[in-house]
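Data availability excerpt. The first of two example chains:
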Amino acid sequence: MQKSMRGASGYDIAVGTDFMVEVMIKEGLLEPLNHDHITNLNNIDDQFPDKSFDPGNKHSVPYMWGGAFIAYNKDTVDTEITSYKDLWKPEFKNSLVVLDDQRVMMGIANKMQGESMSSTDPEVIEKSKELLIDLLPNIKAFDSDTQKTMLLNGEAKAGIVWGAEAYLAHRENPAIETVLPEEGMYLGIDCFIIPKGAPNQRAAEAFIDFVLRPEISAEITQDFPYSNPNKAAHDLIDDEILNHPAVNPPEEELAKGEFLKDLGEAVKDCDRAWSEVKQ
């Protein structure tokens, strides 16, 4: 996004998470899509198009979606885990891997207060900062890329991880289980977008249409098992993947989950709070 804000990015296509798509649309950083060139958009499940961050999907196409879950090794954890707050227990000193993601981690701390993940209330943001600072003695690593590695090699007993990482860790070690936190989980949709001034927009739209073919979309999920919004692809995906709670949580859990929203000017308060957590 920073490169796009300086002018033409030079990229034909990018992937942006829902709330960032909202920001980029407001900033005029995205090209409108020609849906006549993306006929496989019809394969997307009805619950995903026309979200509030991009009504009518004029600028984005859902690619993958998922959430932030708790994963833990039941062979090394003695305490019961039902919520995010359980990770603050002394048992987890220096043994957690958590997402290095400002909005998700601050949002989780907001949720623990019974507030929106996208709260703009300075008092809520300040309290979330304090909660995360209190968690620091338990955090062994911030990692948004390969959280399963520390779960599998024993460096971490538990963590706040992406759904695909929780599933892949469980597949290699069935003792690693997923918890859908009782407070309600973070949810996000990653979308294809075309940056303003893209030199080859027609080719980008052709690529998006190609990825939305059921067989191509299913193949991606087999290797990168995030939740797949492409309903037509589901018949081609292994049931083991589709039925795992970190990949496709039950409806009642999704109802408690929350998608992030643009914070507007309050993002400065969130940035400051996060920098004080990480300093």
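And the second chain:
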Amino acid sequence: MTLPPLDYSFRFLTSILEAQSEVPQGGLRKLKYVKEKGKIDTKAIRFNNNNLVTSSGLKSFVDSLLYDPERLSWLDLSFNMLNAVEEDITHFKNLIILYLHGNNIKSFSEVGKLSVLLKLSTLTLHGNPLELENGYRHRVLGHLPQIRSLDFSGVTKIDKEIVKQWKTKSTKMYKDSFLNT
């Protein structure tokens, strides 16, 4: 049985904490509550199309609302104003799908923070300033080799080969410059 997502999209939220006073949007399927715990049973949360500038507070929010926070596997933070990947996101080790498109992430070092999410296989980052950087796709895949879909496009054998060649070349250039100093 697929559980419906907890949906806080299109709420003009500026912080995760504001969602605590909001009632999640209803969908075609009703949320499943675990009566004895008084919490929601879901694996997915939507915070898309808000005005979030930080994901701070996400962990405590999820812990307070979800029956089993460790099962969170899908998180949509797209179309906000996030400029960083904060620890609140990386805490959820079972994330498989993470949507961060349409934000304000500028640095590949922020993408690198996601490397602790070993189960992450689907990621979106398009519409962030870092998408304009040379080698964007392959640099993201270099940080996150487990990704199977980036920006709604499957990762191909050619993508993996380009990343492998890029890493080999970068390592050789580093060793050469180190030996020549």
